[in-house]
Amino acid sequence: MTSEKAVESISCPACKSDFDSETLRKNLNTCPSCSHHFRMEPWDRIAYLADPDSFIEFCKNMKSLNPIAMDGYEEKLTEATRKSNLSDAVITGTCTIDKQPVVLALMSFSFMGGSMGSVVGEKITRAIMTGVDKRCPVIIYATSGGARMQEGIFSLMQMAKTASAAAELDRAGLPLFLVLCDPTTGGVTASFAMLGDITIAEPGALIGFAGPRVIEGTIKQTLPEGFQRAEFQLEKGFVDTIVPRKDQREFFVRLLKMHRGKPAGANAPGSAGHEREDQA
Amino acid sequence: MSSSKKVENKIEELKKMATEHGVDISDEIARITEKIQETSRGSRAWKRVELARNPDRPRALDIIKNICDDFIELHGDRHFGDDLALVGGIGIIDGIAVTIIGNQKGRNLKETMARNGGMANPEGYRKALRLAKQAEKFGRPIITLIDTQGAYPGLGAEERGIGEAIAVNLREFSQLKTPIICIIIGEGGSGGALGIGVGDKIYMLENAVYSVISPEGYASILLRDSSQAKNAAAMMKITAEDVLDLKICNGIIPEPTGGAQVDPATSSKSIKEVIVRDLKDLMTRNPSVLVRYRNQKIRTIGHFVEECQ
């Protein structure tokens, strides 16, 4: 959680092997011994995924307001910006991956737990709508604790808002690809994160609606090992495949090729001429 | 008329009576007025939470019985089972065939257990979607009656994809080419409420609440003190008046003094009036235009600034 760039020593929580932060960084934030996936920040992912210098960020200066005048929220935001160097919990933009254009949205768990308030909702919505306008695929890297409670009902409504945008992309016949990272829970899971045409998970990522402690509180027993992890979600049928980080770029190169050359406007049931006649 | 307005009127009446009879009750009046102001915000919000959760409050099926000339309940999601926490069916309201979907809490312990306290599992949301799609197919408007603490945070719910079930409802309800009226009749809790809460018109009963998390949840997570729930209720702006002020709902449906449970028939009558009035308007609109407006409205919700550099 520290922001200093100095080399520090790190111990893998999974296999307990020791290495330094520079080794971890070079290894795409995965453990060099057991490939345990540590969390990764949006800009590091962009550096790995996008063709060099192809990423053009949009809504760079969008900042949150305090819509329900919640005590202490402004201070929280200032603190989060200072710590993470981000203006909110998502970075959006366009780029190419092996010369194939995509819209990219990447969430950051280090900004207030990746929580979705008005800014995250608006930026995700605009990213998806940019996909509609530019007729190109949208890739979202999700990681979030859920809705940003300090924005009250407005944070809840961002779920409907992002889902509405996803519906628009769906109607336009354009693909939405989701990568679920550790952790993806709450209102983000219950909206755009579960609306991908193709859903990829990072190994070991916690993916669910209610958090494990909330569930344990409800059922009054300890959850089984691996519950809600990526591998569990694959078994239960909620993700298409688990792709280790080092393979993700190559995976998207292949996937994007498979979605190339789709005729514009195909599979758009909402287009003109499909109006119901039973309601004047 | 709101309850507080009624109290004010009552005080005015008392004052008048006192003057007529030559009695000085100004001290008493001052005390009462002060008390009312003091208990406003914090406890006013909490009072709403208590009323919204009142076990005698009319449930979705009570309201359906009161507002429909006929109703046939339909069961099951066709994949896993039937969720008794989320009910639905076809009804006739003022001669109009509608599909009604609602969260159903129990009234006594046995029923509360059978209905899982109104907390639906994925199959509940999938039943709701099945019935909603059916409504669209047959050109029936949809009425949803929202009354839940939230979706059920249980083991099975997670295994069967509660997050996915709600997400799909949000996407699909946004696109249904038929009018949708959503009414929060009690607790509007989080994603579990929103899962049947996307529509053209959103109403709240006077004592209903709508929030992203329960006041208890907010208090324990953000204030790190679960005993702060009353304060959290006020801070979160969850009452019908708050939600109307924030322009998330279209209107407030009045309840009898003391709450809907005092006079369920009158309360249902008010609900019916709003539904009938709005249906008459919404049903004249082109369904495609309706969908476009619905989505435009949803997509403009949020508060942010874009600074130029």
Q: What percent of residues of chain A adopt helix (DSSP H or I)? A: 25-40%
Q: Count the strands of chain B?
A: 9
CATH topology of the domain at 96-187 and 194-201 and 265-299 in chain B: the name is 2-enoyl-CoA Hydratase, Chain A, domain 1
Distance between the termini of chain A: 58 Å
Strand content of chain A: 15-25%
Strand order of the largest sheet of chain A: 3-5-6-7-8-9-10
Please state the second-level CATH architecture of the domain at 96-187 and 194-201 and 265-299 in chain B. Answer: Alpha-Beta Complex
What is the radius of gyration of chain A computed over CA atoms, rounded to a whole number of angstroms?
19 Å
Uncertain residue segments of chain A: 266-280
The total count of helices of chain A amounts to: 9
Question: Roughly what fraction of the amino acids of chain B lie in strands?
Answer: 15-25%
What's this model, at a glance?
The complex is a heterodimer of chains A (about 280) and B (about 300). Chain A is α/β, with parallel strands linked by helices.
What does this structure look like?
- The complex is a heterodimer of chains A (280) and B (309).
- Chain A folds into 2 domains: 10-38, no CATH class; 40-258, 2-enoyl-CoA Hydratase, Chain A, domain 1 (Alpha-Beta Complex).
- In chain A, the strands form 2 sheets. In chain A, strands 3-5-6-7-8-9-10 form a 7-stranded mixed sheet, with helices on both faces. Chain A has a two-stranded antiparallel sheet with strand order 1-2.
- Chain A is of the alpha/beta class and 280 residues long.
- Chain A contains 9 helices and 10 strands.
- Chain B starts with a helix and ends with a strand.
- Chain B is globular.
- In chain B, 48% of the residues lie in helices and 17% in strands.
- In chain B, strand 5 (180-189), helix 9 (190-194) and strand 6 (201-205) form a beta-alpha-beta unit.
- The model of chain B has no long low-confidence stretch (mean pLDDT 93).
- Chain B has 309 residues and is α/β, with parallel strands linked by helices.
- Chain B has 14 helices and 9 strands.
- Chain B has helices spanning 3-20, 26-38, 41-52, 60-67, 109-114, 122-137, 155-159, 162-175, 190-194, 215-221, 229-235, 240-245, 264-282, 287-299; strands at 70-73, 86-93, 96-103, 142-148, 180-189, 201-205, 209-211, 251-253, 304-306.
- Classes of the chains: A alpha/beta (280), B alpha/beta (309).
- At the A-B interface, strand 4, helix 4, helix 5, helix 6 and helix 7 of A face helix 7, helix 8, helix 9, helix 14 and strand 9 of B.
